[in-house]
Structures are given as structure tokens and as C-alpha cells.
Design goal:
Blueprint: E1 2-13, E2 16-28, E3 33-37, H1 44-51, E4 59-64, E5 67-68, H2 74-84, E6 85-89, H3 100-110, H4 115-128, H5 144-156, E7 162-166, H6 174-189, E8 194-197, H7 201-204, E9 209-214, E10 217-223
Parallel strand pairs: 3-8, 3-9, 6-7, 7-8
Antiparallel strand pairs: 1-2, 1-4, 4-5, 9-10
Helix pairs in contact: 3-4, 3-5, 4-5, 5-6
Bound molecules: adenosine-5'-diphosphate (ADP) and magnesium ion.
Adenosine-5'-diphosphate binds near residues 18, 38, 40, 44 and 46.
């Protein structure tokens, strides 16, 4: 589903170049549920931004869902992003003036899905995260856990090839973290391919594979032997 080879990312800040990824290769099959771990500044978000077609790599090759997306224009990347990827962020990134339902529908407007179809898909996604009774609320009228469930519904509604989550439980307490991880495990059981950044081993143990980064390189990649199913 995802295949990257020797990805290098260098940020240029004035005279100083900082190489955040120093040659990263990673292969993710359909149906995997993988954690990306590592200390602050090791390149986790940089990697997610490249995999999410939000940023371009400096060198390397990226195949997403059988398409080479290594050298696309910004417009082409935006199209791929809408069609193939679902995003979940630590800070939810919901639009405050829109209702829960409108937040879930919005990316499908950009993706060119017809109005009836996108409403149907949004309602189905909101049902999966058990939020059918909150669709007319605004984000400031629901809890943090509910906000993240809205963000999950938004990410899955258009049936993306891959769901990318950057510290999805970083702002949530233990109880709500379990709720979110249970939903992600259920989606994975139904076939979703999920890639999640976390710095917490307690969260990574709910996934199937852990890839560890350090200083811009992968230093380990292993199956979670004692995975906890919620
Ligand atoms: N837009 C940017 N411009 C310059 N340097 C950046 C930028 N984004 C990240 N970096 C640097 O790249 C390195 C990796 O950052 P990041 O991918 O955010 O790490 P992590 O998510 O693992 O904490 C850090 O040294 C960070 O300061
Ligand atoms: Mg980060």
C-alpha cells in the first residue's frame, strides 16, 4: 500500500540545512496497523508529512497504492491526498464554526463527491464512531474524545487507502485513549490500513508493528508480539 525507498528530507533555513530524514525505506501492506516511534525531533512528523503528500521529499521514491507519487506537482499531490489518504491529528483540526456533520462532509466536497453521496458516507462514518446523536453539535459542544472521534469519521468517510494519525491520543487522558485505540483496532479489523505516530509504548502496544526512528533513520522494525486487543 505504501512503499518508500531511501527517502531524504532536508530543510533549508537560511544558510543552515537540516537533514531530518537521512535515507528511510519502509513498506506497509494493506491491512497493517503500524506505530512510528522515536524521541522528539527524530523525524516522525516529517515522515508522516511526506507519506501524507503534505510535503515533498528531497530525494527518494514513494509508491502509494500502486502509483508513483515521487515527483508530482502540488495540485496532483492535493488530489492524491483527498482521494487516498485520511488524516487524524493530535489537535483534532476541526473547523469550529461547522457542525460535526459538516466537518466530516467537508473533505468530500473537495474530493468532488456528489452532495447526497457525501452526506450518506459522512453519516455512515459517524455511526462507526458512535456519534450519530451529536451530528448537529459544534466542536466546542463536545468532549476531546468526541472531537477525535469526529476527526476519525472525517478520515475514514471517503474510504481512503491509508489512514495517517500523528499522535492521535496525545491530548487525551488514559480512558479516552483506550476508547480511541479500540475504534482504530475495529477499523483495522474491517480492513483499514493505519499508520500512527506515538511516543507512548502504552499506546503502541495496541498496534501490530513498531517502527523506531532515531536521528532521521529507522533503527528497528518489529512485530508486536504481545499485542493487546481492546
Ligand atoms: N519546517 C521545518 N523547517 C526546518 N526544520 C524543521 C521543519 N520541520 C521539522 N524540522 C526539523 O526536523 C527535525 C525533525 O522534526 P520532526 O519531524 O518534527 O520530528 P518529530 O516529529 O519526531 O518530533 C527536527 O530537528 C526539526 O527541528
Ligand atoms: Mg512530531
Amino acid at each position: 500500500m505504501i512503499s518508500i525507498e531511501n527517502v531524504v528530507k532536508t530543510y533549508a533555513n537560511g544558510d543552515i540545512n537540516l537533514t531530518a530524514l537521512k535515507g528511510v525505506s519502509l513498506h506497509i501492506e494493506r491491512g497493517e496497523f503500524t506505530s512510528i516511534m522515536g524521541p522528539s525531533g527524530c523525524g516522525k512528523s516529517t515522515l508522516m508529512n511526506i507519506l501524507g503528500c503534505l510535503d515533498k521529499m528531497s530525494l527518494g521514491r514513494y509508491i502509494l497504492n500502486s502509483k508513483d507519487v515521487s515527483n508530482l506537482t502540488d495540485d496532483e499531490l492535493a488530489f492524491i491526498r483527498n482521494k487516498e489518504l485520511g488524516f487524524i491529528f493530535q489537535s483534532f483540526n476541526l473547523l469550529p464554526r461547522m457542525t460535526v456533520l459538516e466537518n466530516v462532509v467537508l473533505p468530500m466536497i473537495y474530493a468532488g463527491i456528489a452532495p447526497q453521496e457525501r452526506r450518506k458516507k459522512a453519516l455512515e462514518a459517524l455511526e462507526k464512531v458512535n456519534l450519530t446523536d451529536r451530528i448537529k453539535h459544534k466542536p466546542n459542544e463536545i468532549s476531546g474524545g468526541q472531537k477525535q472521534r469526529v476527526a476519525i469519521a472525517r478520515a475514514i468517510a471517503n474510504n481512503p487507502a491509508v489512514i495517517l494519525a500523528d499522535e492521535p491520543t496525545g491530548n487525551l487522558d488514559t480512558q479516552v485513549t483506550l476508547e480511541i485505540m479500540k475504534i482504530l483496532q475495529q477499523l483495522n479489523n474491517e480492513g483499514a490500513t493505519i499508520l500512527m505516530v506515538t511516543h507512548e509504548p502504552d499506546v503502541a502496544k495496541y498496534t501490530k508493528r513498531i517502527v523506531k526512528l532515531r536521528d532521521g533513520l529507522i533503527i528497528s522494525d518489529s512485530k508486536v508480539e504481545d499485542r493487546v486487543v481492546l
